[in-house]
Amino acid sequence: MRTVLALSLSSFLSLCAFAQSPPVVPEEKNPHNTAADRAAGAKMFRSHCGPCHGTRATGGTGPDLTTGIFYHGGTDADLYRNISNGIAGTAMPDVFFDGTQVWQLVAYVRSLSERATPATPPGDASHGEQLARAKGCTGCHLIRGEGGAKGPDLSLIGSQRSVEYLRDSILNPDDKVAKEYWVAKVLAKDGKSYTGFVMNQDTYTVQILDFSRGLTSISRSDFKDFGIDRGSVMPSYKGKLSDSELNDIVAYLASLKRRKGGSE
User: Fold this and answer.
1) Distance of CA 105 to CAs 36, 37, 161, Å?
2) CATH 2.30.30.100 in the chain, residues?
3) May I ask the CATH class of domain 125-177+235-254?
4) What residues does 226 pair with on adjacent strands?
5) pTM score > 0.70 for this model?
6) Which residues, in sequence order, are CB contacts of 192 under 8 Å at separation 6+?
7) CATH architecture of 22-112
């Protein structure tokens, strides 16, 4: 009985190890690349990939995929592995899709850049860097180790967002505000006020990255008033920048890209 039990346990562990092993890439070229495959990939992308890459794949917390430039390998097999296994050192997770579904996602991602020509901003990136400092961008945004924390880190924004998105964000910042940048405003019973981003909350406390105090934990029992502003703390620069200045800043932001083969 002990021998049979040991063999059964061994077999079970072997099956578990097999189930957790990375999927095997059967071919270098995508064998599922019909119009129907791309349509199926598009549906999966919108529901599972869109939250990070954007519903139109133009970027978010993950990179813009419409340019056809891939920083961790650009072959069909590379894309298959990256989708299946995730990418170490990044926020890209592995997925639970079967092999055919992964290939369908690869087919869809490929189709995004078939007719696309990456937009090249007409501005002067070097002058745009000077303007970004002069206009106060680094007062709120971190750019390669320099700046504040009242807005998204822009260190790799050229890989994450399209040129059109960057331009619109400068002119119309209230149009698209990610939930993590909604501003909490708390008035405590003792008269103290807190303003910042909600980092975490539970039944009893709320942790806020307060703009003046830094990370602060506040007990809900101390609240007198609590509200969330879903607008952007960033002002619109519409009418505050000339066309050439806007082009230069966009060109600078678009130049802030990851290096191929690395996390930056």
Assistant:
1) 11, 8, 20
2) 183-229
3) mainly alpha
4) 186
5) no
6) none
7) Orthogonal Bundle (1.10)
Helix extents (H) in the chain: 2-20, 35-44, 50-53, 76-85, 99-112, 125-134, 137-140, 157-160, 163-171, 243-254
Please write the tens of the pLDDT for every residue from 38-76: 999 999 999 999 888 888 888 877 888 888 888 788 889
Say which residues have a Cβ less than 8 Å from residue 200's Cβ, sequence separation at least 6: 206, 207
> For the chain, how long is the longest CA-to-CA vector?
83
In the chain, ranges of CATH 1.10.760.10 domains: 22-112, 125-177+235-254
Reference 174, options 247, 244, 243, 238; nearest CA is: 238
CA angle, residues 75, 76, 77, in degrees to nearest 5 = 90
For the record, the structure tokens of 171 come out as 């002119």
Q: Does domain 183-229 have CATH number 3.40.50.2000?
A: no
Best CA proximity match to 28, nearest among 113, 83, 103: 103
Query: Which amino acid makes up residue 30?
Result: N
Question: 98-127, pLDDT tens digit by residue?
Answer: 999 999 999 999 998 876 555 678 899 999
Contact 84, 102 (CB under 8 A): yes
Q: Round to whole Å and give the CA distance between 14 and 10.
A: 6
Decide the pairing of beta strands 214-219 and 223-229.
unpaired
